[in-house]
Amino acid sequence: MQKLLIKGKKVLSGTISISGSKNATLPILAASILNDKKTTLKNIPLVKDVFTMIELLSFIGLKTKLHKGKNILEISKKNKKIITVAPYRIVKTMRAGVLVLGPLIAKYKKAKVSLPGGCAIGTRPVDLHLFALKKLGAKILIKEGYIYASAKDGLVGCKIKFPSISVGATENAIIAASQAKGKTILYNCALEPEIENLIVFLKKMGCKISIKKGRKIIINGTFKTSQVSQKIMFDRIELGTYLIAAALMGKKISFSNVIPKIINTEIKVLKSMGVKIKSQNKKIIVYKSLDIKSAKIKTKPYPGFPTDLQAQIMVLMSKAKGYSSIEENIFENRFMHVPELKRMGAKISTKNNIAQILGPTKLSGAEVMATDLRASVCLVLAGLIADNRTVINRIYHLDRGYENLEKKLKTCGAKITRI
Fold first, then answer.
1. CA dist., res. 159 & res. 364, Å (int)
2. Which of 56, 65, 312, 321 has its CA 20 to 30 A from that of 146?
3. Of the residues 212, 231, 250, the one at which a domain ends
4. Which CATH number fits the domain that encloses residue 264?
């Protein structure tokens, strides 16, 4: 099993180009099932979850051609025979596998999709996905670890109010409703930038979709497939991760291929903590930041502070003066990185969904274990500022969501090696 070795206390400087968004790519790949013509996706990240979804599309019966040197993926119909199944052996490592449920039911009127796997950060049930699809007319049965869904007469537009905000359920509902008969109105939707990227893609295929105030999305089920070319947006979570790395050990680091206003909340939080950040048109620069201040953060749906940066900013809080706190409101089991950070010397206490961090604390290198995608990268950040050497086990989680992590950090002066 592969490990990362990190020698801490190395000052970072240079430029990091941010990759395409994993969380934007996956729903767009699922939505490409609807298209009978060629789909070309640019700026896709070369990460394990994306490879897994490409493998799933190939299994279903689509023809995929990946140009790795250009980060371009071409998708087309290989033949008329489509297998409306997402098997466990493919989707067991990835939560996003359930996103093919909506397009398969909408276009082929049936689907058999394995219940999803992925990070063990919470139950993240598919209840809201199924709730929306049932409202659209799908008949659902869960049996032997699979979701069996059918809609013999096709899906029919309706009004759906989500009982709680869910990114994945919103995506599945939008994709499915785009081929339903009539109008669908979604209330209490997630409105992440990745969902807007998905809507742009669907509109290029002829869908009529509009976002209204108050977390409302209207979809008119008129669909006409056509050749589509789409550029995947930048990965705002990758950017946030490296901004925190720059705040921890950076001298001057520039970030390109970004749109600063999309991560306005994160920039405001970092500035309030004393991080020296300058935003330009499509570029962000972080300068050496010595006086880190404590903060109180609550994770919330976009445009609030993202749960996917909670673990990373906890490392920065260990350098801040006084008590900081994080209230985790999205997932119920997302403090699994805390014991590993404490092994490195961090002073953290948790009660229910709140973590308190006392700083500044001197971290020491140790052998630690990654439990999920974002927890694993938070341990990388801790290793960058720790004395001595840090060894991170189970780094396959990292490869699910970060493209060329070691290369990007090495280019800026980090001493990090995969063995």
1. 54
2. 65
3. 231
4. 3.65.10.10
- Do residues 261 and 129 share a domain? no
pTM of the predicted model, to two decimals? 0.95
Structural contact between residues 385 and 315, judged by C-beta atoms closer than 8 angstroms: yes
Could you read off the pLDDT tens digit of each residue along the chain, which spans 419 residues? Answer: 899 999 999 999 999 999 999 999 999 999 999 999 999 999 999 999 999 999 999 999 999 999 999 999 999 987 778 999 999 999 888 878 899 999 999 999 999 999 876 444 344 568 899 999 999 999 999 999 899 999 999 999 999 999 999 999 999 999 999 999 999 999 999 999 999 999 999 999 989 999 999 999 999 987 677 899 999 999 999 999 999 999 999 999 999 989 999 999 999 999 999 999 999 889 999 999 999 999 999 999 999 999 999 999 999 999 999 999 999 998 776 788 999 999 999 999 999 999 999 999 999 999 999 888 888 899 999 999 999 999 999 898 898 889 999 999 999 999 999 99
Alpha-carbon distance values, 378 to 143, 230, 251, 336, 341 (Å): 37, 31, 20, 11, 9
Angle CA 290–291–292, to nearest 5: 105
Question: Could you confirm whether 189 is annotated as catalytic?
Answer: no
Which of 119, 189, 207, 378 is the catalytic position? 119
Supply φ then ψ for residue 282, to 5 degrees. -125, 35
Q: What is the DSSP string of 254-272?
A: EEES--GGGGHHHHHHHHH
Distance CA 29, CA 338 (A): 34
Rounded-to-integer distance, Cα 282 and Cα 264, Å: 13
What are the angstrom distances between the C-alpha of 298 and each of 112, 142, 261? 37, 35, 20
Asked whether residue 341 falls in the same domain as residue 395, the answer is: yes
Domain boundaries, position 271: 4-19+234-418
